[in-house]
Amino acid sequence: MRVLTLVGNRPQFVKAAAVSTHLRAQHDEVLVHSGQHYDDELSAVFFHELGLPAPDRELGIGSADAATQVAGIMHGLEPVLADSRPDLVLVYGDTNTTLAGALSCARLGLPLAHVESGMRSFDDSMPEERNRVLTDHLSGLLLCSTPTAVENLAREGVEEGVELVGDVMADVTLLTAPVAARESDALDRFAVREGEYLLVTAHRAGNVDDPEALGRLVEVLLALPLPALFPAHPRTRARLETAGLLAQLEQAQGISLLPPLGYLDFLQLLRNSRAVLTDSGGVQKEAYLLGVPCITLRDTTEWVETVELGWNRLTGLDRDGVLAALGDLAAPPSHPELYGGGHAGAGVVDAIGRWAAARQPA
Ligand code: UDP
Question: Does the predicted TM-score (pTM) go above 0.90?
Answer without folding.
Answer: yes
